[in-house]
Amino acid sequence: MTLRRSSLRALLTLLAALLLAGCSKPEPYSETIIAFGTLVDVTLYAESPAKADEALRMIESDLQYMHETWHPWKAGSLGRMNLLLPTGGWFSSGPSLLPIIGQSTTLSEQSDGLFNPAIGQLVDLWGFHGEDLPAGPPPEPEAIAALLDQAPRMSDLEIDGIRIRSRNPAVKLDFGAFAKGYGVDRVIERLVELGITDAIVNAGGDLRAIGRHGSRDWRVGIRDPRGQGVIASLEISGDESVFTSGNYERFFEWDGKRYHHIIDPRTGYPADDVLSVTVLHDSGAVADAAATALFVAGREDWPRIAARMGVQAVMVVDTDGGVALTPAMAERIRFESEDAPDPQIRPLP
Ligand code: ADP
Ligand code: MG
Protein backbone atom coordinates (compact mmCIF):
# COMPACT_ATOMS: atom_id res chain seq x y z
CA MET A 1 0.00 0.00 0.00
CA THR A 2 2.32 2.73 -1.23
CA LEU A 3 1.02 6.24 -1.03
CA ARG A 4 3.58 7.92 -3.17
CA ARG A 5 5.12 5.38 -5.49
CA SER A 6 4.71 7.63 -8.54
CA SER A 7 6.26 10.58 -6.71
CA LEU A 8 9.10 8.31 -5.60
CA ARG A 9 9.77 7.34 -9.23
CA ALA A 10 9.76 11.02 -10.21
CA LEU A 11 12.16 11.79 -7.35
CA LEU A 12 14.48 8.95 -8.33
CA THR A 13 14.54 10.15 -11.93
CA LEU A 14 15.29 13.69 -10.82
CA LEU A 15 18.06 12.50 -8.54
CA ALA A 16 19.58 10.41 -11.30
CA ALA A 17 19.54 13.47 -13.56
CA LEU A 18 21.23 15.58 -10.91
CA LEU A 19 23.90 12.96 -10.42
CA LEU A 20 24.55 12.76 -14.16
CA ALA A 21 24.82 16.54 -14.22
CA GLY A 22 27.84 16.20 -11.99
CA CYS A 23 26.18 16.99 -8.66
CA SER A 24 28.00 14.62 -6.32
CA LYS A 25 26.34 15.64 -3.02
CA PRO A 26 24.41 12.58 -1.77
CA GLU A 27 20.65 13.06 -1.57
CA PRO A 28 18.18 11.17 0.60
CA TYR A 29 15.41 9.01 -0.84
CA SER A 30 12.01 8.87 0.88
CA GLU A 31 8.81 6.88 0.81
CA THR A 32 5.68 6.72 2.95
CA ILE A 33 4.11 3.31 3.60
CA ILE A 34 0.93 2.53 5.56
CA ALA A 35 1.54 -0.05 8.33
CA PHE A 36 0.63 -0.59 12.01
CA GLY A 37 -2.34 1.75 11.56
CA THR A 38 -0.10 4.71 10.80
CA LEU A 39 2.06 6.27 8.11
CA VAL A 40 5.62 5.00 8.17
CA ASP A 41 8.08 7.47 6.64
CA VAL A 42 11.33 5.92 5.49
CA THR A 43 14.25 8.15 4.49
CA LEU A 44 17.56 6.63 3.47
CA TYR A 45 20.83 7.41 1.72
CA ALA A 46 21.90 4.96 -0.99
CA GLU A 47 24.68 4.84 -3.54
CA SER A 48 22.26 4.83 -6.47
CA PRO A 49 18.56 5.33 -7.21
CA ALA A 50 18.35 1.62 -8.11
CA LYS A 51 19.73 0.61 -4.71
CA ALA A 52 17.29 2.96 -2.96
CA ASP A 53 14.36 1.58 -4.92
CA GLU A 54 15.39 -2.00 -4.11
CA ALA A 55 15.59 -1.20 -0.38
CA LEU A 56 12.29 0.70 -0.31
CA ARG A 57 10.45 -2.09 -2.16
CA MET A 58 11.80 -4.71 0.23
CA ILE A 59 10.80 -2.70 3.29
CA GLU A 60 7.35 -2.18 1.86
CA SER A 61 6.89 -5.91 1.52
CA ASP A 62 8.34 -6.58 5.00
CA LEU A 63 5.95 -4.05 6.57
CA GLN A 64 3.00 -5.52 4.71
CA TYR A 65 3.96 -8.99 5.98
CA MET A 66 4.32 -7.79 9.60
CA HIS A 67 1.02 -5.93 9.43
CA GLU A 68 -0.82 -9.08 8.31
CA THR A 69 1.04 -11.45 10.66
CA TRP A 70 0.65 -9.45 13.88
CA HIS A 71 -2.84 -8.11 13.38
CA PRO A 72 -4.74 -9.17 16.53
CA TRP A 73 -8.15 -9.81 15.04
CA LYS A 74 -7.91 -9.93 11.23
CA ALA A 75 -7.32 -13.31 9.57
CA GLY A 76 -3.57 -13.86 9.90
CA SER A 77 -1.10 -15.71 12.13
CA LEU A 78 -1.94 -13.77 15.31
CA GLY A 79 -5.68 -13.74 14.56
CA ARG A 80 -5.50 -17.55 14.27
CA MET A 81 -3.46 -17.84 17.45
CA ASN A 82 -6.02 -15.75 19.34
CA LEU A 83 -8.77 -18.13 18.19
CA LEU A 84 -6.80 -21.19 19.36
CA LEU A 85 -5.32 -19.99 22.69
CA PRO A 86 -8.62 -20.15 24.64
CA THR A 87 -8.99 -23.87 23.81
CA GLY A 88 -6.01 -24.65 26.07
CA GLY A 89 -4.74 -27.25 23.58
CA TRP A 90 -1.34 -27.37 21.85
CA PHE A 91 -1.06 -26.03 18.29
CA SER A 92 1.69 -24.96 15.87
CA SER A 93 2.47 -21.27 15.97
CA GLY A 94 3.17 -19.26 12.85
CA PRO A 95 7.01 -19.22 13.09
CA SER A 96 7.42 -15.45 12.91
CA LEU A 97 5.24 -15.03 16.02
CA LEU A 98 7.61 -16.89 18.35
CA PRO A 99 10.36 -14.24 18.49
CA ILE A 100 7.90 -11.38 19.10
CA ILE A 101 6.19 -13.44 21.83
CA GLY A 102 9.60 -14.26 23.35
CA GLN A 103 10.90 -10.69 23.52
CA SER A 104 7.59 -9.25 24.71
CA THR A 105 7.37 -11.88 27.47
CA THR A 106 10.80 -10.84 28.80
CA LEU A 107 9.89 -7.14 28.68
CA SER A 108 6.51 -7.78 30.28
CA GLU A 109 8.18 -9.57 33.21
CA GLN A 110 10.77 -6.76 33.57
CA SER A 111 7.95 -4.20 33.64
CA ASP A 112 6.22 -6.01 36.55
CA GLY A 113 3.36 -6.73 34.13
CA LEU A 114 2.58 -3.04 33.47
CA PHE A 115 3.36 -3.70 29.80
CA ASN A 116 1.16 -6.75 29.28
CA PRO A 117 0.35 -7.83 25.70
CA ALA A 118 -1.86 -10.66 27.09
CA ILE A 119 -4.69 -8.20 27.96
CA GLY A 120 -6.20 -8.20 24.46
CA GLN A 121 -9.66 -8.95 25.88
CA LEU A 122 -9.49 -5.85 28.07
CA VAL A 123 -8.46 -3.71 25.09
CA ASP A 124 -11.41 -5.21 23.15
CA LEU A 125 -13.79 -4.51 26.03
CA TRP A 126 -12.81 -0.83 25.94
CA GLY A 127 -13.30 -0.85 22.17
CA PHE A 128 -9.75 0.23 21.30
CA HIS A 129 -9.05 -2.75 19.05
CA GLY A 130 -10.87 -1.48 15.96
CA GLU A 131 -9.77 1.04 13.37
CA ASP A 132 -12.58 3.40 14.44
CA LEU A 133 -12.43 4.93 17.89
CA PRO A 134 -15.12 3.85 20.38
CA ALA A 135 -17.79 6.42 21.17
CA GLY A 136 -18.40 5.27 24.77
CA PRO A 137 -19.84 4.57 27.24
CA PRO A 138 -16.99 2.96 29.21
CA PRO A 139 -17.48 -0.75 29.95
CA GLU A 140 -19.47 -1.98 32.95
CA PRO A 141 -17.27 -2.26 36.08
CA GLU A 142 -18.43 -5.89 36.51
CA ALA A 143 -17.16 -6.81 33.04
CA ILE A 144 -13.76 -5.22 33.81
CA ALA A 145 -13.59 -6.99 37.20
CA ALA A 146 -14.40 -10.36 35.58
CA LEU A 147 -11.42 -10.00 33.20
CA LEU A 148 -9.08 -8.83 35.99
CA ASP A 149 -10.02 -11.92 38.03
CA GLN A 150 -8.74 -14.13 35.23
CA ALA A 151 -5.38 -12.24 35.31
CA PRO A 152 -4.02 -13.07 31.82
CA ARG A 153 -0.21 -12.89 31.64
CA MET A 154 2.48 -13.68 29.08
CA SER A 155 3.83 -16.32 31.51
CA ASP A 156 0.57 -18.27 31.00
CA LEU A 157 1.94 -19.26 27.58
CA GLU A 158 3.82 -22.54 27.30
CA ILE A 159 6.10 -23.03 24.30
CA ASP A 160 7.61 -26.30 23.08
CA GLY A 161 9.57 -25.96 19.82
CA ILE A 162 7.10 -24.33 17.46
CA ARG A 163 4.09 -25.52 19.47
CA ILE A 164 2.31 -23.25 21.89
CA ARG A 165 -0.62 -23.36 24.31
CA SER A 166 -2.10 -21.14 26.99
CA ARG A 167 -2.73 -22.34 30.53
CA ASN A 168 -5.17 -19.44 30.91
CA PRO A 169 -8.14 -19.17 28.51
CA ALA A 170 -8.33 -15.40 29.12
CA VAL A 171 -5.04 -14.71 27.28
CA LYS A 172 -5.57 -12.74 24.08
CA LEU A 173 -2.45 -11.28 22.50
CA ASP A 174 -2.44 -7.63 21.42
CA PHE A 175 0.91 -6.24 20.31
CA GLY A 176 -0.45 -2.72 19.84
CA ALA A 177 2.06 -1.38 22.38
CA PHE A 178 5.02 -3.25 20.89
CA ALA A 179 4.67 -4.18 17.21
CA LYS A 180 5.71 -0.75 15.98
CA GLY A 181 8.98 -0.86 17.92
CA TYR A 182 9.65 -4.49 17.08
CA GLY A 183 8.77 -3.86 13.42
CA VAL A 184 10.96 -0.76 13.12
CA ASP A 185 13.86 -2.87 14.47
CA ARG A 186 13.23 -5.47 11.71
CA VAL A 187 13.17 -2.71 9.05
CA ILE A 188 16.49 -1.28 10.27
CA GLU A 189 17.96 -4.82 10.28
CA ARG A 190 16.88 -5.22 6.65
CA LEU A 191 18.46 -1.89 5.66
CA VAL A 192 21.75 -2.82 7.35
CA GLU A 193 21.72 -6.19 5.50
CA LEU A 194 21.36 -4.24 2.25
CA GLY A 195 24.44 -2.18 3.10
CA ILE A 196 22.56 1.01 3.97
CA THR A 197 24.25 2.95 6.77
CA ASP A 198 22.19 6.16 7.01
CA ALA A 199 18.41 6.00 7.38
CA ILE A 200 15.44 6.92 9.54
CA VAL A 201 12.22 4.91 9.92
CA ASN A 202 9.52 7.08 11.46
CA ALA A 203 6.16 5.50 12.32
CA GLY A 204 3.99 8.47 13.28
CA GLY A 205 6.62 10.08 15.54
CA ASP A 206 8.00 6.78 16.90
CA LEU A 207 11.27 6.07 15.15
CA ARG A 208 14.69 4.49 14.88
CA ALA A 209 17.58 6.10 13.01
CA ILE A 210 21.00 4.89 11.93
CA GLY A 211 23.99 6.92 10.74
CA ARG A 212 23.48 10.57 9.88
CA HIS A 213 21.27 12.93 7.88
CA GLY A 214 23.91 13.94 5.33
CA SER A 215 26.42 16.14 7.14
CA ARG A 216 24.14 16.57 10.20
CA ASP A 217 22.68 14.36 12.92
CA TRP A 218 19.05 13.31 12.57
CA ARG A 219 16.87 15.80 14.44
CA VAL A 220 13.51 14.66 15.81
CA GLY A 221 10.71 16.61 17.45
CA ILE A 222 8.61 15.35 20.36
CA ARG A 223 4.98 16.41 20.37
CA ASP A 224 3.80 18.58 23.26
CA PRO A 225 1.16 16.49 25.09
CA ARG A 226 -0.11 19.65 26.86
CA GLY A 227 -1.30 21.20 23.60
CA GLN A 228 -0.22 21.66 20.01
CA GLY A 229 3.28 21.78 18.59
CA VAL A 230 6.61 20.39 19.68
CA ILE A 231 7.78 20.38 23.30
CA ALA A 232 11.38 19.36 22.69
CA SER A 233 13.80 17.96 20.15
CA LEU A 234 16.57 15.40 20.16
CA GLU A 235 19.55 14.97 17.87
CA ILE A 236 20.36 11.36 17.17
CA SER A 237 23.16 9.67 15.27
CA GLY A 238 24.66 6.21 15.28
CA ASP A 239 21.75 3.91 16.05
CA GLU A 240 18.97 4.98 18.39
CA SER A 241 15.19 4.82 18.80
CA VAL A 242 12.76 7.38 20.22
CA PHE A 243 9.26 6.19 21.24
CA THR A 244 6.45 8.13 22.92
CA SER A 245 3.21 6.88 24.49
CA GLY A 246 0.63 9.60 24.97
CA ASN A 247 -2.97 9.95 26.12
CA TYR A 248 -3.72 12.10 23.06
CA GLU A 249 -3.23 9.29 20.50
CA ARG A 250 -6.51 7.38 20.79
CA PHE A 251 -9.33 8.30 23.16
CA PHE A 252 -13.04 9.00 23.55
CA GLU A 253 -14.87 11.34 25.88
CA TRP A 254 -17.86 10.34 28.00
CA ASP A 255 -19.58 12.50 30.59
CA GLY A 256 -16.80 15.08 30.34
CA LYS A 257 -14.04 12.53 31.08
CA ARG A 258 -11.37 11.36 28.67
CA TYR A 259 -10.78 7.62 28.33
CA HIS A 260 -7.67 6.73 26.31
CA HIS A 261 -6.08 3.55 25.00
CA ILE A 262 -3.31 2.72 27.49
CA ILE A 263 -4.85 0.44 30.09
CA ASP A 264 -3.46 -0.22 33.56
CA PRO A 265 -3.57 -4.04 33.82
CA ARG A 266 -3.93 -3.73 37.63
CA THR A 267 -7.16 -1.68 37.53
CA GLY A 268 -8.54 -2.40 34.06
CA TYR A 269 -8.98 1.36 33.49
CA PRO A 270 -6.90 3.80 31.40
CA ALA A 271 -3.80 4.92 33.32
CA ASP A 272 -4.39 8.56 34.18
CA ASP A 273 -1.40 9.96 36.04
CA VAL A 274 0.73 11.17 33.13
CA LEU A 275 0.16 12.73 29.70
CA SER A 276 3.13 11.23 27.86
CA VAL A 277 6.31 9.23 28.25
CA THR A 278 9.22 9.42 25.79
CA VAL A 279 11.98 6.81 25.83
CA LEU A 280 15.33 6.96 24.02
CA HIS A 281 17.00 3.55 23.66
CA ASP A 282 19.06 1.59 21.13
CA SER A 283 16.24 -0.89 20.51
CA GLY A 284 12.87 0.21 19.13
CA ALA A 285 11.19 -2.82 20.75
CA VAL A 286 12.50 -1.95 24.23
CA ALA A 287 11.68 1.76 23.78
CA ASP A 288 8.10 0.98 22.67
CA ALA A 289 7.38 -1.48 25.50
CA ALA A 290 9.01 0.81 28.07
CA ALA A 291 7.09 3.93 26.94
CA THR A 292 3.83 2.04 27.55
CA ALA A 293 4.99 0.49 30.86
CA LEU A 294 6.26 3.79 32.30
CA PHE A 295 3.04 5.50 31.24
CA VAL A 296 1.12 2.94 33.31
CA ALA A 297 3.61 3.19 36.21
CA GLY A 298 2.82 6.90 36.66
CA ARG A 299 4.84 9.83 37.99
CA GLU A 300 6.06 8.22 41.24
CA ASP A 301 6.97 4.70 40.20
CA TRP A 302 8.34 5.12 36.64
CA PRO A 303 12.06 5.37 37.61
CA ARG A 304 11.90 1.94 39.28
CA ILE A 305 10.36 0.30 36.19
CA ALA A 306 12.77 2.12 33.84
CA ALA A 307 15.72 0.72 35.81
CA ARG A 308 14.21 -2.79 35.72
CA MET A 309 13.73 -2.55 31.94
CA GLY A 310 17.27 -1.32 31.31
CA VAL A 311 16.15 2.08 30.05
CA GLN A 312 18.28 5.15 30.88
CA ALA A 313 16.89 8.12 28.95
CA VAL A 314 13.28 9.06 29.76
CA MET A 315 11.04 12.14 29.72
CA VAL A 316 7.67 12.09 31.55
CA VAL A 317 5.04 14.85 31.27
CA ASP A 318 2.46 14.47 34.04
CA THR A 319 -1.20 15.51 34.11
CA ASP A 320 -0.30 18.72 35.99
CA GLY A 321 2.06 19.73 33.16
CA GLY A 322 5.20 18.90 35.18
CA VAL A 323 8.16 17.50 33.25
CA ALA A 324 10.61 14.97 34.69
CA LEU A 325 13.83 13.82 33.00
CA THR A 326 16.43 11.21 33.81
CA PRO A 327 19.98 12.61 33.86
CA ALA A 328 20.71 10.77 30.59
CA MET A 329 17.72 12.43 28.89
CA ALA A 330 18.57 15.86 30.35
CA GLU A 331 21.95 15.68 28.61
CA ARG A 332 20.35 15.12 25.24
CA ILE A 333 17.03 16.95 25.05
CA ARG A 334 16.44 20.53 23.92
CA PHE A 335 13.18 22.27 24.86
CA GLU A 336 11.51 24.10 22.01
CA SER A 337 8.40 25.82 23.33
CA GLU A 338 8.29 29.51 24.30
CA ASP A 339 7.21 28.64 27.84
CA ALA A 340 9.92 25.99 28.21
CA PRO A 341 9.14 23.81 31.22
CA ASP A 342 11.45 23.72 34.22
CA PRO A 343 12.17 20.00 34.37
CA GLN A 344 12.72 17.97 37.49
CA ILE A 345 15.73 15.62 37.24
CA ARG A 346 14.96 12.10 38.48
CA PRO A 347 17.96 9.76 38.80
CA LEU A 348 17.17 6.06 38.42
CA PRO A 349 17.47 3.79 41.47
P1 ADP B 1 0.68 3.99 20.58
O1 ADP B 1 0.20 2.76 19.92
O2 ADP B 1 -0.31 5.09 20.57
O3 ADP B 1 2.05 4.41 20.20
P2 ADP B 1 1.34 2.42 22.89
O4 ADP B 1 2.63 1.95 22.33
O5 ADP B 1 1.39 2.80 24.34
O6 ADP B 1 0.76 3.66 22.14
O7 ADP B 1 0.29 1.26 22.67
C1 ADP B 1 -1.05 1.34 23.07
C2 ADP B 1 -1.80 0.10 22.57
O8 ADP B 1 -1.29 -1.06 23.25
C3 ADP B 1 -3.30 0.09 22.87
O9 ADP B 1 -4.01 0.57 21.76
C4 ADP B 1 -3.60 -1.37 23.13
O10 ADP B 1 -3.78 -2.05 21.91
C5 ADP B 1 -2.33 -1.88 23.76
N1 ADP B 1 -2.27 -1.73 25.23
C6 ADP B 1 -3.00 -0.92 26.05
N2 ADP B 1 -2.59 -0.99 27.33
C7 ADP B 1 -1.56 -1.89 27.34
C8 ADP B 1 -0.70 -2.40 28.37
N3 ADP B 1 -0.79 -2.02 29.64
N4 ADP B 1 0.24 -3.30 28.00
C9 ADP B 1 0.35 -3.73 26.71
N5 ADP B 1 -0.42 -3.28 25.71
C10 ADP B 1 -1.35 -2.36 26.00
MG1 MG C 1 4.42 1.30 23.30
Task: Describe the model.
The structure is a single chain. Helices cover 35% and strands 26% of the residues. The protein has helices spanning 5-20, 49-69, 77-84, 97-110, 120-126, 141-150, 179-193, 284-309, 327-332; strands at residues 28-35, 38-45, 91-92, 157-160, 163-166, 199-203, 206-211, 218-223, 230-236, 238-246, 251-254, 257-260, 274-281, 313-318, 323-325, 333-335, 344-345. It has a nine-stranded mixed β-sheet with strand order 1-2-6-7-10-13-14-15-17. Strands 3-5-4 form a three-stranded antiparallel β-sheet, with no helix packed on it. A hairpin with a 2-residue loop joins strand 11 and strand 12 (257-260). Helix 2 packs antiparallel against helix 7 (179-193), helix 4 (97-110) runs parallel beside helix 8 (284-309) and helix 7 crosses helix 8. The termini are far apart. The model is unreliable at 20-24 (pLDDT under 50). It binds adenosine-5'-diphosphate (ADP) and magnesium ion. Adenosine-5'-diphosphate binds next to helix 8.
CATH homologous superfamily designation of one domain: ApbE-like domains
Please identify the top-level CATH class of one domain.
Answer: Alpha Beta
Structural class: alpha+beta
Compute the average pLDDT: 92
pLDDT < 50 stretches: 20-24
Which value, in Å, is the CA radius of gyration? 21 Å
Q: How many H/I helical runs?
A: 9
Written as H for each helix and E for each strand, in order along the chain, the element string is HEEHHEHHHEEHEEEEEEEEHEEHEE
| Helix amount | 25-40%
Shape: globular
CATH architecture of one domain: Roll
Q: Give the oligomeric state.
A: single chain
Ions, cofactors and other ligands present here are:
adenosine-5'-diphosphate, magnesium ion
Q: How far is the N terminus from the C terminus?
A: 45 Å
Number of E-state strands: 17
